[in-house]
Amino acid sequence: MNENELPSADGASTPGLATPGLTTPDVASATPGVASSMRAVVLPGPVAAADLRVSLVPVPEPPAGWVRIKVEAFGLNRSEYHLRAGLATGAVFPIIPGIEATGRVDLAPGGEFAVGQQVVAMMGGMGRTYDGGYAEYTVVPASSVIPVETTLDWATLGALPEMLQTAHGSLYTGLDIQPGQSLLIRGGTSSVGAAAAVLAKERGLTVFSTTRNPDRLETLRSLGVDHPLVDDGNISGQVRAVLRSGVDAALELVGTNTLPDTLRATRVHGTVCFTGMLSDTWTIPDFYPIGYLPNGVRLTAYGGESSDLPPEAFQHYVDLVAAGRLPIRIDRVFPLDEIAAAHHLMETGGAIGKLVVRID
After folding, report:
1. At the topology level of CATH, where does 163-301 sit?
2. Where is the Enoyl reductase (ER) domain (predicted)?
């Protein structure tokens, strides 16, 4: 799944393992040298942003095939707002939310990773069917872990996993972008929208990108966007004023409320990828394909998993960020104790780019 994912569980539950550290609160960590308790954000069920609190819970023990990560930072994602607000289905409560985490391997019983190795983890059920990244330690399947080597600071690295995975998967799996094509990004100042623009420019595309706020047009230009557009509800008209036949590809991050106009902005045999729901509108009532889809325009979708972002691709992107060749916009970095303020900012849409929490 991705940061604008449909509000449902982003992975199947794991037999015999549910919310490590919460279901057995009387069991302390058995690992020498590791504290028996840790700070974590625990959701007892749907709550308001102001009700988010940091609690002390036991440090979880990883079974075989799982890895314990000492979390240094994590990015905030729209799906975590859906979970907190009670819009998600299939989630287990109580739960430590967070569909991604960045840090170092603390314990890997199966030997898949070395202790101290720098890693990121994302999705695969994190923060939905088992405890996620809003904690000092998290236990995740080894299959959800990607190794990385970088001198980037933890907050910057913490902004990247889910944002880059969703942007990369949308562009390459969802749209199969090619150099020389034109791309429309609907919802361009979101963290995924900003990352998608940068990745598309690196691939050699001409990029159109939208914002509802005219004051943010310069932000889009700073990301390399060729045609920043103010979203007045008629983006198709603005796009076709530049490209009469429409764009080759379009990435829909706002929701089904803007999808028809995005489809109209796309050329015959072009493709629209539905990835995000920033508007919290994700269904199409009484969907009639012939009446809904313009002739010859293809509609696909992207939900994704960590496996869609190969380790070598993630390392390449991280290296580009470190070299200053891939500008990633971080709106603000919060300490864990300010998780309520961070969620409020995410919910109200006040951020431009990624919100990050640094474990101090």
Report:
1. Rossmann fold (3.40.50)
2. 45-357
In CATH, the number for domain 37-160+328-358 is: 3.90.180.10
| β-pair partners for 330 | 354
According to the model, what pLDDT value does residue 33 have? 64
Q: How confident is the model at residue 32 (pLDDT cuts 50, 70, 90)?
A: low
Asked whether the bond before 94 is cis by omega within 30 degrees of 0, the reply is yes
Domain boundaries, the chain: 37-160+328-358, 163-301
Tell me the whole-structure pTM to 2 decimals. Answer: 0.84
Distance CA 3, CA 100 (A): 10
